[in-house]
Specification:
- The protein has helices at 2-16, 63-72, 89-111, 191-196, 201-217, 222-226, 230-248, 269-316, 318-334, and strands at 112-115, 119-125, 128-133, 136-139, 146-152, 157-161, 169-171, 177-188, 252-263.
- It is rod-shaped, with a radius of gyration of 58 Å.
- The protein is α+β, with helices and mostly antiparallel strands.
- Helix 8 (269-316) packs across helix 9.
- The strands form three sheets. Strands 6, 7, 8 and 9 form a four-stranded antiparallel beta sheet that branches. The chain has a three-stranded antiparallel beta sheet with strand order 3-2-5. Strands 1-4 form a two-stranded antiparallel sheet.
């Protein structure tokens, strides 16, 4: 502002020489035109750009001028170069206004809360649980009196174990090691318990999952772990995890467990494959033997039923049945063998009959 005042002092002498559109008003009280001749009228209004009578008036310093002056001079006499705000009533009002704005911003930011449709707000007063906020615009006392922890209660959280993709060896019931990977899906059902009962609830879910998996697999054979028993294992692990978390009062429900990988360790993979091939061959031979035994049993049952039917007929007519059985047996024995027929004397086994002729009929009535 000091520089502005110096520029202001040099401006009136140059502005007073030309004839003002508002009339005279020079330094000597006379009005002259651009050529130096006296003006026609000396009674007009004073030039606003000319210096007032008695010389330029020093402007009254304002609070801002005083502030800048102290800043350039190092804070005034004995200020030691520190920046100081001007004192007085203006400074007091400035301080009060700034404190009021900060207070309003603090109240607005810590007292008003927006809770989403799938969220709940856990409210604590000086660290003690006070209540749970429902979705919408909610208000509480400002911080640090009250604090709100917003928790998502609808989203399904998922974690996969092992997280780094390494090996997770688990011992089975028949003393085999299996590399097992699984995924757990869970969500929050009680925000209050989730926020206060466990220090690290997410880590607690992982620990409960690992404990439940090892307990269930320890009571399951290798064939069930890598084969047909996966669904049963997943159900048992989910139930075991839920029991553990309910004992902890974690406020968490298990949505589901999925076994992603169940295989032999990498170091024993070749031997495990050989064992698997042998087990498959063993199962194949067992199935073939069972099929053969079933066919033999079916044939025996059929023959037994046939014999029962023949025996029933035999009891009704023993002689006829005996003769028929004899003929049928001889037919089966002699049917596929070469036969030699010996003709007795006086018996013609073959009598040729010309075509178109018929044998004479036997006499009837004793004729």
């Amino acid at each position: 502002m000091t520089t502005a005042r110096a520029w202001w002092r040099h401006l009136p002498p140059f502005m007073s020489k030309p004839k003002s559109p508002w009339g005279g008003g020079g330094d000597d009280g006379s009005d002259k035109d651009a050529a130096g001749e006296p003006g026609e009228d000396n009674a007009g209004p004073r030039n606003p750009w000319a210096q007032p009578p008695g010389g330029p008036r020093a402007p009254r310093p304002t609070g801002l001028d005083d502030l800048l002056r102290r800043a350039r001079s190092g804070g005034g006499g004995g200020g030691g170069g520190r920046f100081q705000l001007p004192g007085g009533g203006n400074a007091r009002n400035l301080w009060l206004g700034g404190v009021g704005l900060v207070l309003l911003a603090w109240i607005a930011l810590t007292s008003f809360h927006v809770i989403g449709p799938q969220e709940r707000g856990v409210v604590t007063y000086f660290g003690k649980y006070s209540g749970t906020l429902s979705p919408g615009w909610q208000t509480t006392l400002p911080s640090p009196i009250a604090s709100v922890q917003v928790i998502d209660v609808n989203s399904i959280r998922t974690f996969q174990f092992p997280e780094n993709g390494g090996a997770n060896l688990v011992l089975t019931e028949d003393q085999y090691l299996v590399d097992l990977g699984y995924t757990v899906r869970w969500r929050i059902v009680d925000p209050q318990k989730y926020a206060f009962e466990l220090k690290l609830p997410d880590d607690s879910v992982k620990s409960a999952a690992e404990s439940a998996v090892r307990a269930v697999v320890a009571n399951t054979s290798l064939d069930n772990v890598i084969g047909r028993g996966k669904g049963q294992i997943e159900t048992q692990v989910a139930q075991a995890m839920q029991r553990i978390l309910d004992e902890y009062q974690a406020g968490i429900t298990i949505v589901g467990v999925s076994l992603n990988n169940a295989s032999a360790p990498a170091a024993a993979l070749d031997a495990f494959n050989q064992v698997t091939v042998a087990q498959q061959e063993y199962a194949k031979n067992i199935n073939a033997a069972r099929a053969y035994a079933q066919s033999i049993a079916a044939n025996a049952e059929g023959e037994a039923q046939s014999f029962d039917r023949v025996y029933a007929q035999y009891k009704l007519a023993p002689d006829v049945t005996r003769r028929r059985m004899y003929y049928e047996t001889m037919e089966q024995v002699l049917g596929q063998t070469n036969k030699t027929i010996i003709e007795p004397r006086g018996v013609a086994p073959y009598l040729p009959i010309p075509p178109g002729k018929s044998l004479p009929s036997a006499p009837q009535g004793g004729q």
